[in-house]
Amino acid sequence: MPTHQAPHRTSRFLPLAATAALGLLLSGCTSAGGDGGGSSADPVLPEVTRSAAPEGELPGELQDELQAALDEVMAEYDVPGAAAGVWIPGQGSWTTAAGLANVEANTPATTDMSWPIRSITKSYTVSMILQLADEGELSLDDTIDQYVDGVTNGDKITLLQLANMSSGNADYVTEAFQDEFLADPTRIYTLEELNSFVLDQPAQFEPGAEYLYTNANTNLLGAVVEKVTGTAYADAIQDRILTPLGQTGTTYITDVDDWAEPHPTGYVIDGEPMPMEENSSILGPAGSLFSTLEDGRAWAETLGTGALLKPETQELREIGHKIPSPPYDLYAVGMGETNGWLGHNGEGLGFTAATFHDQATGASIVVYMNVSNNPDAHPADQGFRALAEVLANGTGA
What top-level class would CATH report for the domain 10-36+44-136+234-393? Predict the structure, then answer.
């Protein structure tokens, strides 16, 4: 068992049971310690097999109820287009696409499109950190100054505190970053450049004293992944997660030209949905993954069951706490919990996404929507909650 103490003001997920920090500008275990150096050896690939989708379709009446719930959420929150899926072992599957991927071109959304999943990327990045801890390549008690120089309180902030959003370090959306981004919204940023805006900035609070969700926490962990593995983040995630899981529809994209057509256009709410130019490079390991419904299904189950990790590491991962945003009941270690469902949300730059798994029933739900910055709610999270409620009240899970 890990020897970490649970942070104060925490509670544990029931075992069976955005990127908001970028603000209006953009969105809308203890294991044996490593030495922090890069490794020239091949990565120890996780022993995991991609689960198959449940055979057959869900009952027609249940499908109708799910579609009606999704349609209602889209109407309430002015969502141009969406793709969603529900998978229940032993009962079947339901996937749907609704509305328009591009309003101006009247392009319908489809179930096979590639969608930006924004902060769901965080769950992948933290999973790699936990894998490396399981392998003894690093310790979650390591401080960030062992990997990245210049972070305020870097000699006190642990990797676990970065992963559970209790580090207190500054976010990178400084005045300097905003000035650069607004001067050239198409500029492609490297991870090192994103992290440079955090260095030597005043801390927001002492490490472990509070919880505050920021992209900078995860991007610093992305730099740790690079240093420990000796490879670029994009290569590390491909080698350690995407290839072993068969995630052929999931890609780390920082240059929008690499985004395969046809794809959805993002819209931000500014009185009405307004199209948003895509630049995922400003999100890095905190939010630059793009994925499909089918890969979302596989990731929801992998994340929720802890298939990539040792059982004791997954147990540590499920230690959750209240956090101001985004909308979870609890946020833990690169994973959130809502009504017993485990997973992650994402929001920003015209898109929202939600990917969740219910350990009790084995059901998974994925919702992608091409809208962000709704002042009243996170649309994809509302879609997930609506679909989960149908399952809870109906003949499904």
Answer: alpha beta
